[in-house]
Write a structure and sequence with these properties.
With about 500 residues, the chain is mainly alpha-helical. It has helices at about 5-10, 15-25, 30-40, 45-75, 75-85, 95-135, 150-155, 155-160, 165-180, 185-215, 215-225, 235-250, 255-260, 270-295, 300-310, 320-330, 335-370, 375-390, 415-440, 445-450, 455-480. Bound molecules: phenylalanine. Phenylalanine binds next to helix 2, helix 3, helix 6, helix 12 and helix 17.
Length: about 500
C-alpha cells in the first residue's frame, strides 16, 4: 500500500515502516542513558512510578494528538499545525507550538550527537579488547584485563579532556545522520529503522538475560520499584519524570507530527500510538533491568545497601554508562564481547533517534525555503554539529564556563543546560500547547474523524487532552521550575 504524499511527495512505504520508524525515534539514548540516569538521580522507584503515570495519562493522549495533526496536515510540523488551525478558523499562530518543539528537537540533536560519539569511541575500545582477548586466551574472561579499575574509570574523563577525539567521533556520527536523512523518508530514515530496530531488540533481550544470570537482578528490581510514597509528591521528581516521558516518546518536539505526516490515511493512529508507547516504555524498563544488575554487581555490598536504603545516590548522569558499566564488565564473564554488543546496541538506538531529531527541522526547511533535501540536510546537520562541538568544550573547562547559573540550570555545564532547557521547558511547553489546541481549539469533526477511537475510549481521550494534560503539565512546569511556589525553595 502506498504511503502518504507529504511534504515533497514523501511517505512511509508501509504501516510497519511507520511504526518501526516511530519506535526507532522514541527508543534512543533517552531510554538507555537518560532513563537510568534520571531514575538513579531521583531515587529510583518514585521516579519510575511517576514516569509510568506520565506515559499513560499524558504521553499517550499527546502522542495520538501529534500524529493526528501531522496526518491531517500532511506537511512539516509547523505547516501541519497551521493547516489544522486555519481549517478550524483559529489563529495560524498555533503553529508556534510546533515551532517551539522543532527548536527543541534541533537543540537536542546538538548534544545527542556528541554523546553518540562517545558511544562510537567506546565501541572502538571494546572492539579492540575483543580482538585482544581472542589473541590471548579466549573471550571467557572479563573485559579490559590490561587496565586497572582506576584506568577504566578514567576512560570517560580522558575522552572528555581530548577535544579532538570527541569532535572526530561527533563528526562521524553526525555525518551518518546526515547521510540517512539526506536520502529521504522511505529510502533513508525508514531503512535505518527497519534494519536496526529488530537487531536492537534481539541484543537488548540477550543482554538482559545475561544481566539477570550474572548480575544483581534482585537489587535492581528493588531499586527500580521500591519507593517512598512521599517522594511521589516531590515537584522536582515530578518534573524530571514528565520531562523524561516526553523526551523518551519524542513528544513536544515536532517529531511525531512530522512522522505522522508521512503516514497513510488508513492507518489507525490510536493503535499505532499504543504500540509506540508500549515499545518505548518497555525498552526503558528492560534497559534498567539490563544496566542496573550489571553495574550493581561491581559495587561493594555496603554501598549497594546504602543505595537501596536511599542513603546514597547511584552515580547519576553519564557515569553510569561510561564509568560504572565498563568497570562491571571487567569482572564479568565474556565482559569484552558483552561490552561490545552493549555499546553497538546503544549506537543503533541512537542513530534511529538522531535521524528523527534532524528530520523535524529538515522537513520544515525543505518546504519553507524550497531547496533540495540534500542541501537542507547538510546545512542543518552542519549547524547542529557546530553547536554540539561548542557545547562539548564545556567538558574541558567546566569550572569557568557556566554562563547560565540560575534555576534548574545552576551548576551545570553547557551540555546539561541544553538538556534541561529542552526536556524540562521546551518539550513540556510544546506538548501543553498541542493538548490545548487539540482539546479546545481545533475543529472537533476534523479531529474526531481521524483518531481511530470510538465510544468510551474517545471520551476518555478527550477528557485527558482537555483537562488532565493541560492542568498537570502546567502545574508540574510551574512547581518544578519555581519550587518556591510550594514553599520548598
Ligand atoms: N526519544 C528519543 C530518545 O529517547 C529522543 C528524541 C526526542 C528523538 C525528540 C526525537 C525527538 O532518545
Amino acid at each position: 500500500m502506498a504511503g502518504a504524499l507529504a511534504p515533497g511527495g514523501e511517505g512511509w512505504s508501509s504501516r510497519t515502516a511507520f511504526v518501526l520508524a516511530a519506535i526507532g525515534s522514541a527508543v534512543g539514548l533517552g531510554n538507555l542513558v537518560r532513563f537510568p540516569a534520571e531514575a538513579g538521580a531521583n531515587g529510583g522507584g518514585a521516579f519510575v512510578i511517576f514516569y509510568i503515570f506520565c506515559v499513560l495519562l499524558i504521553g499517550l493522549p499527546i502522542l495520538l494528538s501529534e500524529t493526528l495533526i501531522g496526518r491531517h496536515g500532511q506537511g512539516s510540523a509547523i505547516e501541519s499545525m497551521k493547516k489544522v488551525a486555519i481549517e478550524s478558523r483559529a489563529s495560524s499562530w498555533w503553529s508556534l507550538a510546533a515551532g517551539v518543539g522543532m527548536v527543541g528537537a534541533f537543540l537536542i540533536l546538538t548534544y545527542y550527537s556528541v554523546l553518540a560519539g562517545w558511544i562510537v569511541h567506546f565501541i572502538g575500545i571494546f572492539a579492540g579488547d575483543v580482538a585482544h582477548a581472542f589473541a590471548s586466551g579466549g573471550l571467557a574472561q572479563g573485559a579490559l584485563q590490561d587496565l586497572s579499575v582506576d584506568q577504566v574509570q578514567g576512560l570517560l574523563p580522558a575522552l572528555q579532556a581530548n577535544s579532538s577525539e570527541m569532535l572526530a567521533m561527533h563528526a562521524i556520527f553526525m555525518a551518518l545522520t546526515i547521510f540517512f536523512v539526506g536520502r529521504g523518508v522511505s529510502s533513508g530514515i525508514e531503512k535505518v529503522a527497519v534494519w536496526l530496530m529488530p537487531i536492537f531488540f534481539i541484543l537488548l533481550i540477550a543482554i538482559t538475560i545475561y544481566g539477570a544470570f550474572t548480575g544483581s537482578f534482585g537489587a535492581a528490581l528493588a531499586f527500580l520499584f521500591d519507593f517512598e510514597p512521599a517522594r511521589l509528591l516531590d515537584p522536582s521528581v515530578q518534573l524530571s519524570a514528565l520531562g523524561q516521558a516526553l523526551f523518551s516518546l519524542s513528544l513536544g518536539s515536532a517529531l511525531m507530527i512530522t512522522y505522522g505526516a508521512y503516514a497513510a490515511r488508513d492507518i489507525n493512529l490510536a493503535k499505532t500510538s499504543v504500540q509506540i508507547a508500549t515499545a518505548d516504555t518497555s525498552v526503558a524498563i528492560i534497559a534498567g533491568l539490563a544496566i542496573f544488575p550489571i553495574t550493581f554487581a561491581a559495587l561493594a555490598p555496603a554501598s549497594l545497601t546504602a543505595i537501596l536504603d536511599g542513603q546514597e545516590q547511584v552515580q547519576g548522569g553519564l557515569g553510569l554508562l561510561f564509568v560504572n558499566l565498563p568497570v562491571a564488565f571487567q569482572t564479568m564473564p565474556a565482559g569484552s564481547l558483552i561490552g561490545l554488543l552493549f555499546f553497538i546496541m546503544v549506537f543503533f538506538a541512537a542513530l534511529t533517534s538522531s535521524v528523527a531529531l534532524l528530520e523535524a527541522s529538515v522537513s520544515w526547511a525543505i518546504g519553507r525555503f524550497k531547496q533540495p533535501r540534500w542541501l537542507v540536510t547538510i546545512l542543518l546537520g552542519g549547524l547542529a554539529f557546530l553547536i554540539g562541538a561548542w557545547a562539548s568544550f564545556s567538558f574541558n573547562s567546566q569550572a569557568d564556563f557556566q554562563p547560565f547559573d540560575f534555576m534548574i540550570f545552576s551548576g551545570q555545564p553547557v551540555f546539561g543546560i541544553i538538556d534541561e532547557l529542552t526536556a524540562k521547558i521546551l518539550l513540556p511547553t510544546s506538548a501543553l500547547l498541542v493538548a490545548i489546541f487539540v482539546g479546545w481549539i481545533a475543529d472537533r469533526r476534523l479531529i474526531d474523524s481521524e483518531n481511530g477511537l470510538d465510544g468510551k475510549l474517545h471520551r476518555i481521550w478527550l477528557f485527558l487532552v482537555r483537562w488532565l494534560c493541560p492542568l498537570v503539565i502546567s502545574a508540574i512546569l510551574l512547581t518544578g521550575l519555581f519550587p518556591g511556589l510550594l514553599g520548598q525553595g
